[in-house]
Design brief:
Order of helices and strands of chain A: HHHEHHEEHEHEHHEHEHEHEHHH
CATH class of chain B: Alpha Beta
Strand order of the largest sheet of chain B: 2-1-9-8-7-6-5-4-3
Order of helices and strands of chain B: HEHHEEHEHEHHEHEHEHEHHH
Radius of gyration of chain B: 19 Å
Shape of chain A: globular
CATH superfamily of chain B: Aldolase class I
Shape of chain B: globular
Structural class of chain B: alpha/beta
Distance between the termini of chain A: 22 Å
Helix content of chain B: 40-55%
CATH class of the largest domain in chain A: Alpha Beta
Mean pLDDT of chain A: 83
Number of domains of chain A: 2
Low-confidence stretches of chain B: 1-24
Largest sheet of chain A: 9 strands, parallel
Distance between the termini of chain B: 42 Å
Strand content of chain B: 5-15%
Number of strands of chain A: 9
Radius of gyration of chain A: 21 Å
CATH architecture of chain B: Alpha-Beta Barrel
Oligomer: heterodimer
Number of helices of chain B: 13
Largest sheet of chain B: 9 strands, parallel
CATH topology of the largest domain in chain A: TIM Barrel
Amino acid sequence: MGNVPSAVKHCLSYQQLLREHLWIGDSVAGALDPAQISVLINLHCFQPYVSGFSVSLAGSVASIHWETSQLSGLPEFVKIVEVGPRDGLQNEKVIVPTDIKIEFINRLSQTGLSVIEVTSFVSSRWVPQMADHTEVMKGIHQYPGVRYPVLTPNLQGFHRAVAAGATEISVFGAASESFSKKNINCSIEESMGKFEEVVKSARHMNIPARGYVSCALGCPYEGIITPQKVTEVSKRLYSMGCYEISLGDTIGVGTPGSMKRMLESVMKEIPLGALAVHCHDTYGQALANILTALQMGINVVDSAVSGLGGCPYAKGASGNVATEDLIYMLNGLGLNTGVNLYKVMEAGDFICKAVNKTTNSKVAQASFNA
Amino acid sequence: MAAMTKALPRRLVGLASLRAVSTSSMDTLPKQVKIVEVGPRDGLQNEKNIVSTPVKIKLIDMLSEAGLSVIEATSFVSPKWVPQMADHAEVLKGIQKFPGITYPVLIPNLKGFEAAVAAGAKEVSIFGAASELFTKKNINCSIEESFQRFDAILKAAQSANISVRGYVSCVLGCPYEGKISPAKVAEVTKKFYSMGCYEISLGDTIGVGTPGIMKDMLSAVMQEVPPAALAVHCHDTYGQALANTLMALQMGVSVVDSSVAGLGGCPYAQGASGNLATEDLVYMLEGLGIHTGVNLQKLLEAGNFICQALNRKTSSKVAQATCKL
């Protein structure tokens, strides 16, 4: 930006930006309803445009010309798996009260998200944040068309989850021996044995199971992880019955090249439709890595509203990629997600206030200006 | 809420046949990328706290030692408009000029050009825009009139053997006009190139762009200007900068602007971030095996230094991850 004086603050046509840059527009979820428009008006950044704003915006949303660029080779629909309530909150220091968690998940259920990972049936000794797993599972409103998977590290957790009403579960493996040992105190092989018990029981009860592979692009203990190892572990999880495998860049060290190499290897053994990516933004690489995955045909992406959850391996570092920023990119690419970005931003605002932290989402920062 | 499956009208492209193109595009990434470090100018210009001349000089010296080959040092604009850059002549005279490194300076007009040359500048940058309204609000004239001004500068620069870099703002969106057509960007870029700019930096001034829009814009521009003469300057206001930069690299661009520590907020959205952080860019390029010549460790030190001087936290994720709290 040339000699723009820093005294030039707000631009004059935010409503044009909204109309034309689609980050607010989700014509799939329908035009903004009057309630949303009035909330928009209340946001700081729209105050200069209050008069006549609702009329112009409602009219213009109805006539949005969907002229986005369809990047060749990208999937038409991307499923977002929202992990904020579990992966996100799990890594937040402040323990969130049960009723707040429930309210948070209920809000997320109304955004168009079709999968929301609710909680984790682990021992509260290990993960105090998830101690109220049963109450949360029982307390949330289960909206039709939305799935609410929960993490179950072992058979005991699985049975508790089912008793609490869970209808989908996840198991967490790793592509690194050291990580597996330090995280769940057993080797990869031993962990596969445990997961097999869980997944088989789940299948027996017609409960779908999702598999996660941590450290897919690097390990905090071992460093480099070979694509072959990731493939091997993914294949194990897939063949034991997991319907989808989420490949996680646990410490966010991956870059588009390592993402591509890893996916090329895994895609030789597992069908594209059964794969997802779970990128952490610790080194700012998440969206670039996700773009790479999309270009390779992946169409399921995990993210956490507001980028909740720090990285436990690097103090002060960020963790999950923010759902808002992901949706912004997907909307701009003309990809269908079914999710209303604006409602996600509201849910993000809610949880950030509850946890007393500033959002990690750039889209939210730019919109709910400080 | 059930997932929406309503089909949207969209341009039909032969998706299946083009998938091979998109995956192999990673193989056509440039082997090396020139990073143009704009922290001392674009970065500091948008920081509220005024930084002293010695601090600016030290920052630039540290960046030189980090291996960057182009460091935009300052801006010869009136201090009335940009107080942060009031010490432009002192900065340019005070920095160490390492061999092999260029230190371009921004100039808004002929007067600024002359002052820059008098202070020892060997390279200058001029700033245009792909938006009429932005140009009017920024430099109080139309795009056509701005070209006339620039032409005078370019002629003078040519006589003095001084290289000129052109910037085009608002290439993926304008804070006043909204949507900007790729054809307009191509037109402005072509004009700059034909007037004599050796390189044109295409700026997503408000960071609204996403990879598809970046691709469309570059496709249009590359029909008029060779890729080797192009650079991208992505802002991270909506977190899209690195993804947009990756797309540009896939399209054959090999020059990228960035700012150490992601200095510089966005003047159009309070509280929002601005420039892409050089550290995060270098991290990605190194991971891709692309040569940059930059020593990340030294770069982190420079970022740490300026953030302390500005009393602010870094906007670089790499810096946040590697610093110990």
